[in-house]
Amino acid sequence: SIRAQRLSSHAAAMREGRPSAARHASRLACQDAATDAFVQALAMAPAVGDTWHDLGTSLFFAGELAESERCYAEGLRRAPGHSKLLHEAETWRTFAPSASEEAVTASGRVSFADDDFDRIVLPEGSYADRPSSLDIHMGEAFFGATP
User: Fold this and answer.
1) Beta strands in the chain (DSSP E)
2) First to last CA, the chain
3) Quick one: CA torsion of 121, 127, 131, 135, rounded to 10 degrees?
4) Which residues have CB under 8 Å from 23's CB, separation 6+?
5) How far apart are CA 129 and CA 146, in angstroms?
6) How many CA atoms lie within 13 A of 26 on its CB side?
7) Are 93 and 84 in contact (CB under 8 A)?
8) Residues in the chain with pLDDT < 70?
9) Inter-axis angle of helices 2-15 and 49-61, to 10 degrees?
10) DSSP helix/strand/coil, 104
11) Are 65 and 32 in contact (CB under 8 A)?
12) Which terminus of the chain faces fewer neighbouring Cβ atoms within 10 Å, N or C?
């Protein structure tokens, strides 16, 4: 589990643009190695809530959101009362996907409509309120016409 935590911290450093001594060519390769190490740790000690939490977090940052949620749920089943897993369960309940987010196209990809994003109310000072976060599609003169 210590190896997995070190790999995960290297992946976090790469994600944040900080220097890292990881021996992996990319952040995703480092993240995959961390995920594999967490899985190996769980094979040896499947009731350790911290490892389930770390694996779920590693999967989350690898972009595997559904697997991350399942991992947190399984960790909570095996380690009931674990504070970090309880927090993640509450977060998943709070931000549960809408029916339109769960709609899957024939290609197997999730489809979103523009209205899905407009329904999300962000608190003051969040990403949407910062001038630097304006949609790049708004700059037609620079980026060209929207397809």
Assistant:
1) none
2) 47
3) -80
4) none
5) 23
6) 4
7) no
8) 1, 96-147
9) 30
10) strand
11) no
12) C
Cβ(78)–Cβ(52) under 8 Å? yes
Model pLDDT, residue 101: 47
Between the alpha carbon of residue 46 and those of residues 49, 55, 144, the distances in Å are: 8, 12, 53
* Token duo for residue 102: 């769960």
- Global pTM reads 0.61
Q: What is the CA radius of gyration of the chain?
A: 19
- The reported pLDDT for the residue numbered 27 is 80
8 touches 54 (CB < 8 A): yes
Structure-token match 């094979």, residue found: 43
Tokens 């003169």 locate to 141
